[in-house]
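Run log // design_07
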């Protein structure tokens, strides 16, 4: 039984967090075996039914009570939870009170599906709720329950827009119950952040939260909780330096995005390293890379995004740089920097891997399609791409502190989350975070119509078909969302729509500031929206009545994404909350990276029989799915490598000094 504990709102001597223990192989084996048991939904089914009945009984009683009585009872229940833990009988009554007050304050009462989702999260699990099931309203159930029990609560979102929107929409209910709400976005000052963390409930993105945690760690000489208490007694100014009060309770919205997709690379706090010699070294490497010839000095595998030197290329590189000074003497350093220069020139693509805005190179997240604010490539790669694009050269940065997402979020005393797509990564969520996944039934039956997916040989054929489908759906009165995998692809699709005279709007990393406005109008009759995988995730595309009559939102996916979860997210943009909607894939084989032997073999069959028949279409779809699985596997291995490296560094630092 989990008990709620708190050391007071501003006591920085106590900064509770769970100790991360690197399990031995036998412990890992037992943990994975336990995960099979925890993931079995039947275990919770009986408890869930009893719980919902209890909520229903309490809900009838709540209808007759005044706001003041309900609020007093909610706080009284919070005190009981602090002593006894999140027992179903206590949680059921507090959920009933929250539901009643939500109806009176926000005009929205929780459905049984939302009550189920909130209850699942309080079990320290991930609730998989279909897109459009009202996860924002669901979140207030565990958030308020935990907060009333005395726990500082962090509600973690995927971007600043959702952070502000969700906090603003739910604040009237929180304030009704006497709970304070803080909001942290990228532009907040240290003082504003500290004030926000002092609130009962703090809305913040995962990235901002982890960076604030690292900044606190840098201010502390010790990281062991007992040593920190001693240090705080010695340093009376410590409270004014720190921001977080510890890692008590976290509720993660879009949990798969935060805990899985974002975790491939560690978060790093770095300082500027001014070194003119290093700048010259990078500029020279960029120039030298132009002297090397493809297939003679190096080879490129664009499908695998790999560049390799030939033996002749290594010798040629040594000759070209023989008079360049001491930095060029070592073969490893010489080949590494020129290799990165070749990568920047030949593999990293403008408007796909990055964009240039206001004279600065900004990274694009391949999964979300959003700009990764404040992120940069390491080891000189970022500066090499700046040289390629003619941007002002920024200073290289040196690492001051870093931690992986996995290592950070495992430190919360209690964590739960929700998302529309978690089943595909349920094993990883359990093995890394100890979070089991429970699926929540939809409030209303789904009405999504899925058409047969199509594969074409060329880009031209694919986009010609997309235009044709748009014209058909516009005549029917539907709105259309076209999903692409990059800014480049979005702009190409825009050209085809323009030629056909179809008015449309684009939503990609270039238009990230206008995301909310674009999504707001995407459900109008005949409205065509081209979007990368960002696609307004976390926001509803509200349908005009005419659109509902015509068949709802029609989603056309033009590329497989790096994960089948992201495919499902795009499909989930339509047919929400019982609305009508339709979905199809219109794909192409042109310019698709094919890296696996199995997929190549299947596509050789396609070359001989063509793409006209149903059998050929099935083979082509299977080949593209195999490639998607390959990318998913590579991303999984990258996440595992990040975690293992972080754990090794922590173990090393545990011997030589403080962790982190």
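design_07 sequence
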């Amino acid at each position: 039984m989990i008990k709620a504990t708190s050391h007071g709102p501003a006591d920085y001597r106590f900064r509770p967090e769970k100790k991360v223990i690197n399990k031995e192989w036998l412990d890992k084996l037992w943990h994975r075996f336990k995960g099979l048991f925890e993931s079995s939904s039947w275990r919770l089914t009986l408890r869930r039914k009893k719980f919902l009945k209890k909520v229903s009984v309490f809900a009838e009683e709540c209808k007759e009570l005044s706001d003041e009585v309900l609020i007093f009872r909610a706080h009284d229940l919070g005190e009981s939870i602090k002593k006894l833990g999140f027992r179903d009988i206590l949680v059921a009554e507090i959920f009933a009170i929250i539901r009643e007050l939500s109806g009176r304050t926000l005009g929205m009462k929780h459905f049984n599906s939302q009550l189920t989702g909130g209850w699942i999260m309080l079990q320290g699990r991930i609730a998989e709720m279909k897109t459009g099931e009202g996860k924002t309203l669901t979140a207030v159930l565990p958030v308020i329950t935990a907060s009333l029990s005395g726990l500082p609560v962090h509600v973690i979102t995927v971007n600043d827009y959702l952070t502000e929107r969700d906090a603003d929409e739910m604040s009237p209910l929180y304030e009704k119950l006497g709970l304070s709400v803080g909001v942290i976005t990228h532009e907040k000052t240290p003082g504003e952040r500290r004030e926000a963390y002092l609130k009962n409930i703090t809305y913040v993105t995962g990235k901002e939260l982890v960076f604030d945690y690292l900044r606190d760690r840098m201010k502390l000489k010790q990281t062991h909780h007992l040593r920190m208490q001693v240090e705080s007694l010695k340093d009376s100014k410590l409270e004014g330096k720190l921001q977080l009060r510890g890692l008590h309770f976290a509720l993660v919205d879009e949990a798969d995005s935060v805990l899985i997709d974002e975790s491939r690379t560690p978060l790093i706090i770095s300082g500027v390293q001014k070194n003119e010699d290093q700048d010259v070294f990078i500029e020279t490497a960029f120039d030298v890379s132009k002297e090397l010839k493809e297939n003679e000095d190096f080879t490129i595998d664009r499908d695998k995004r790999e560049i390799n030197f030939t033996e002749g290329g290594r010798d040629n590189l040594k000759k070209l740089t023989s008079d360049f000074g001491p930095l060029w003497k070592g073969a490893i350093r010489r080949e590494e920097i020129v290799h990165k220069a070749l990568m920047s020139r030949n593999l990293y693509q403008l408007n796909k891997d990055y964009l240039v805005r206001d004279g600065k190179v900004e990274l694009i997240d391949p999964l979300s399609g959003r700009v990764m604010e404040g992120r940069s490539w390491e080891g000189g790669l970022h500066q090499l791409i700046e040289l390629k694009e003619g941007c002002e050269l920024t200073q290289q940065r040196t690492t001051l502190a870093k931690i992986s997402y996995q290592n950070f979020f495992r430190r919360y005393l209690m964590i739960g989350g929700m998302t529309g797509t978690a089943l595909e990564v349920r094993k990883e969520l359990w093995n890394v975070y100890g979070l089991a996944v429970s699926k929540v039934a939809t409030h209303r039956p789904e009405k999504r119509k899925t058409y047969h997916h199509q594969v074409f040989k060329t880009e031209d054929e694919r986009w010609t078909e997309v235009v044709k489908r748009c014209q058909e759906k516009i005549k029917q009165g539907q709105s259309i969302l076209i999903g692409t995998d990059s800014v480049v692809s979005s702009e190409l699709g825009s050209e085809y729509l323009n030629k056909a005279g179809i008015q449309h709007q684009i939503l990609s990393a270039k238009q990230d500031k206008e995301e909310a406005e674009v999504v707001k109008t995407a459900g109008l009759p005949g409205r065509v929206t081209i979007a990368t995988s960002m696609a307004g995730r976390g926001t509803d595309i509200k349908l005009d009545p005419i659109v509902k009559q015509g068949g709802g939102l029609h989603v056309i996916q033009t590329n497989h994404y790096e994960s089948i979860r992201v495919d499902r997210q795009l499909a989930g943009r339509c047919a929400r909350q019982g609305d009508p909607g339709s979905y199809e894939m219109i794909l192409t084989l042109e310019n698709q990276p094919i890296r696996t032997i199995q997929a190549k073999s299947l596509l050789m069959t396609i070359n001989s029989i063509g793409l006209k028949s149903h059998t050929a279409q099935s083979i082509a779809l299977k080949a593209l799915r195999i490639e998607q699985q390959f990318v998913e596997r590579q991303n999984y291995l990258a996440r595992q490598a990040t975690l293992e490296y972080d754990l090794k560094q922590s173990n090393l630092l545990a011997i030589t000094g403080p962790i982190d």
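Residues 614-656 form the longest helix (43 residues).
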